[in-house]
Design a protein that fits this description.
alpha+beta, single chain, 3 helices, about 30% helix, about 120 residues
C-alpha cells in the first residue's frame, strides 16, 4: 500500500472536540493529540466503540474500520495554531472519520503528498 503524508492545521486545539464526548479528544496539548490520533489510526478501538453506538452497527461502511499499525503522527505549536503531520497508508475517508470523531470539524487539510 502507498503511504501518504497528510499536513493538517488545527486553529484552536483547546476548543477542538468531537460532537460526542464518548469519542472526543480530551487532552491538553499537541503531544496528547498526536498520541490520541495515532492510536485511533493504529487500532480499531475508537472505530469499534463508535460503530457499536450507531443505531444499526451492521450498516456502517466496513471500509472505515481500516487501520494502519505503522501510522505516525506529529503535532506541534506553530504561531497560534497546531501543525499536524500524519504518515499513513489509510485513505482520506478513514483519516477524516477518525479526526471528526476526535475533534469535529476543527481541522483543515493543508496538503497531501505521496510518501
Amino acid at each position: 500500500m502507498a503511504r501518504s503524508h497528510y499536513y493538517l492545521s488545527i486553529a484552536d486545539l483547546a476548543k477542538a472536540r468531537g460532537n460526542d464526548p464518548r469519542f472526543s479528544y480530551s487532552g491538553a496539548g499537541p503531544d496528547d493529540f498526536a498520541t490520541a490520533l495515532q492510536q485511533a489510526l493504529r487500532d480499531a478501538d475508537l472505530f469499534n466503540r463508535w460503530r457499536a453506538a450507531q443505531p444499526d452497527p451492521d450498516a456502517v461502511d466496513g471500509n472505515l474500520a481500516e487501520t494502519d499499525p505503522q501510522a505516525q503522527v506529529n503535532a506541534k505549536v506553530s504561531d497560534l495554531h497546531i501543525d499536524v503531520e500524519l504518515l499513513t497508508t489509510l485513505p482520506m475517508s478513514v483519516v477524516r472519520q477518525r479526526l471528526n470523531l476526535l475533534i469535529g470539524s476543527a481541522w483543515q487539510l493543508r496538503d497531501m503528498r505521496s510518501a
